[in-house]
Amino acid sequence: MKKQRLVILGGGESGVGTALLGKEKGFDVFVSDKGKIKEKYKEVLIHNEIEWEDETHTESKIINADLVMKSPGIPDKVALVKQIHEKGIQVVSEIEFAAKFTKATLVAITGSNGKTTTASLTHHILEQQLNVGLAGNIGDSFANQVLEEGFANYVLEISSFQLDDIVDFKPHIAVITNITPDHLDRYEYKFENYIKSKFRIAENQTKSDYLIYDADDEVIVNHLKNNPVQSTLLPFSLTKVIENGAYLEGDEIKITIDNNKIIMPTKNLTLEGKHNVKNAMAASTVAHLLKIRKQTIRESLENFQGVEHRLENVLKINKVQYINDSKATNVNATYYALESMDAPTIWIVGGVDKGNNYSELFSFVNEKVKAIICLGVDNDKLMETFGGMVDVIVETQYMSEAVKIAYKLGEAGDNVLLSPCCASFDLFENYEDRGRQFKNAVRNL
Predict the structure, then answer these.
(1) Which segments constitute the Mur ligase central domain (predicted)?
(2) Which of 110, 123, 160, 183 could form a disulfide with 197 if both were Cys (CB 3.0 to 4.6 A apart)?
(3) Which whole-number Å values give the CA distances from 108 to 117, 195, 278, 310, 390, in the listed order?
(4) DSSP characters for 280-342?
C-alpha cells in the first residue's frame, strides 16, 4: 500500500514537530518553507532523514499531497494555498493533526488576550497533581510532545489561525478569555469572521464537554445567544453572580460546578490587575473540573511567576521602573497594561499596525502617560493620534535609542513601559526578540 503523502508548509517549531510525528506514523513527509529554515530545525530534519526545502516552494512536490499541514503564519489567500484547496487536498493545522494521535484530555485556551498567561497558569496548577504538557502556540510543539512525551493531559494555547484549519479537533475543556478586534487583516477586516474563528474551539464539543468564557465580554455573550453551542457552559464574571461557573464577591473568587463550590481568596495573587483575576478564574475553573485539590489551586495561584514579556518588571534604575510588555501586540492588551500603571508613565509603542483603533486608550494616555516614544518603521498614525495628548512624543527605529530617550525623560517614581500595541515584524523577528532587546538595552544603561 502506498504511503500517504504529508506535505508541511513552514519549517518552524510546529512544522518540524508535525514532520517527526508524521514520519513515526508512517506518512511520506516533505517539509517546504518559503523562508529560511533555522539551523537547529534543519539538523533535526536531516538527522531524521525527512525531505525538506527552504527559500522556495516546489509546486510539483506539494500539490501531489494527500494532506497538507500549514503553519498558522501562512494566510489562506496565498496563491499556493488557494491551489491546494482547489485540488481538494485537505489542509489542517498542527493541533488538528496531532490530536488524532493522542487519547489525552485536552484543555484548549483561546482569546485575543490573556491566553498565554491563562494557559501557563492552568498548566502550573495542573502539573502539581497531573501528568500534563503545555503546547500549541507556546513552548515545544504539540505534535512533538505527542510523539516524545505522551502526556495524559495537555493544556493548549491556540490562536484563531490554528483554529481556522481544524476539522474534528475537540477539546474536553475549551476556554475563551475574551474577543476584541485583532488580526483583522487576515479576516477581510470583518470582526464577525474573527469571532467565528475563535468559536471554532467549541464547534465539535458535545454536552459532556465544557466551554469556559468571560460573561462580562459582550462580544462572546452576544455570539453565544445567536449561535448556541452544544457544550456545557461555565462562565466567569467580575460583576455578576454566576450559578454554574465563577464570580468575584468582595476579594474572593467563588467557583461552582454541579453544586460543588470552592472559594479562592485573591488577596495574595502574584499577578496584579483585574484582567489577571479573570485569568485566575478561568484557570481555577479548569482545575476544579479536573478535580485538583482546593489547597493546591490556592497555593499555585499564589506562587505563579507570570509570563515573560507580559507586564514583566525588568529593573528599577534611579527609582524608575522599566516594564517589558512586548507581548502586547494589540490595543486591548495595551489597554490592560496602561490600566494597571499607578505612576507617571513613559510609553514605548509601535510596530506593524493591524488596523488599530486607539480611541479606547485615550483616557489612560491623558491621565497617566507623560511621554510617548514611537518605535516603528512607520509612526505617522501614532504621531497624529497621540501628538496632541502628551507634551513629548518622539520617534526612533532602534530599541537602544528608545530606551536611552526614556532614561533621559524618566524621573524618580516614573514607569517606562514597552507595550507596543502592534505586531513586531517591521524591526524585530517576533515579540520575544523585541522584549529581549528591550531588556538588554535596559541592562546596558
Answers:
(1) 109-287
(2) 160
(3) 13, 16, 16, 20, 41
(4) HHHHHHHHHHTT--HHHHHHHHHH----TTSSEEEEEETTEEEEE-TT--SHHHHHHHHHT--
Residues of the chain with pLDDT > 70: what percent? Answer: 100
Whole-structure pTM value: 0.83
Residue 183: all three cell numbers together: 488580526
User: Are the CB atoms for 252 and 241 separated by under 8 Å?
Assistant: no
Instruction: Enter the CATH code of domain 96-303.
Output: 3.40.1190.10
Known binding residues are 111-117
- Write the DSSP symbol of residue 29: E
Range 312-443 has CATH code 3.90.190.20? yes
The half-sphere exposure of 141 on its side-chain side, counting CA atoms within 13 A, is 24
Confidence of residue 33 (pLDDT cuts 50, 70, 90): very high
User: Tell me, what amino acid is at 348?
Assistant: I
- The single-letter code of the amino acid at 177 is T
Q: 104 is written with which cell numbers? A: 489525552
Q: Where do the CATH 3.40.1190.10 domains begin and end in the chain?
A: 96-303
Please give the pLDDT value at position 38: 93
Helix (H) or strand (E) holding 401: helix 399-409
Q: How confident is the model at residue 257 (pLDDT cuts 50, 70, 90)?
A: very high
Interatomic CA distance for residues 364 and 267, integer angstroms = 25
Query: What was the pLDDT predicted at 192?
Result: 85
Sequence-ordered list of residues with C-beta below 8 angstroms from that of 118, at least 6 positions apart, any chain: 109, 111, 175, 177, 279, 282, 283
Q: Provide the pairing of β-strand 312-317 with 320-324.
A: antiparallel
E strands, 167-284, are: 173-176, 210-214, 232-237, 245-249, 252-257, 260-265
φ and ψ at 162, to 5 degrees? -70, -35
Residues tagged in the binding site annotation for ATP: 111-117
The Cα–Cα gap between 115 and 252 comes to 22
* Domain 5-92, CATH: 3.40.50.720
